[in-house]
Amino acid sequence: MEIREQVVLITGSSRGLGAATAKAFGREGARVIVNYFNNEEKAYEVVKSIGQERAMAIQADIRDQEQVNQMFMKAKEHFGQSVSTIVNNALVNFTFNGDDRKNLDSIEWEDFNTQFEGSIMAALHTVKAGKADMAKEHFGRIINIGTNLFQNPVVPYHDYNTSKAALLGLTRNIAKELGPAGITANMVSGGLLEKTDASAATPDLVFDIIKANTPLQKVTTPEDVADAILFFASPWSRAVTGQNLVVDGGLVMD
Fold it and tell me: Which end of the chain has fewer CB atoms surrounding its CB within 10 Å, N or C?
């Protein structure tokens, strides 16, 4: 299925990487669901930038299965077509600030649980809500957003990094189970992105260090990662599933 024929849900797409991804799909002609939790105004700005005939904003807490189910139903009614592509991008209660991170003495299980709910539980909810319609069409694309930090934890964000490592495990299990139904599941893992709301607290010196140590001599942007996400939604990725593509300018080579 060409991208322009797809209905794409991007969770947490009112800002940062999610917004860049929504706009990238809109640029390619897809119909886009801009999911948000709090930032209604920013979500509608993203919709406006894509065009109201091809995008809609839906508020839903992705940690709540019923709200996710309702979001899928609303999208299907609005576009007259079920969701074909899911990008699990939302980030729950986390900012990238190495100076203020919790170490092993201060971190608690609840911190891990918050990130597991935002990554694992949320992805489980969207996949459960969408897989039946995808199977009927014998086409589905599930793209989970990871991080290069679980392969190279230059900053040991214990809760965030661990949740994304677990998300790769879920991604591969989804790929195995849903592959016979024509559904692929992959992960795209960026590095620290310049510059989003989540990375706003990161000192400029950190970005300078990344730039100096990256083969491409640049810090990855949300737009760079968004274009890689498009690959996994495109027909060109039809034989690719269960993979993790690191998009960080070569900083981490796996």
Answer: C
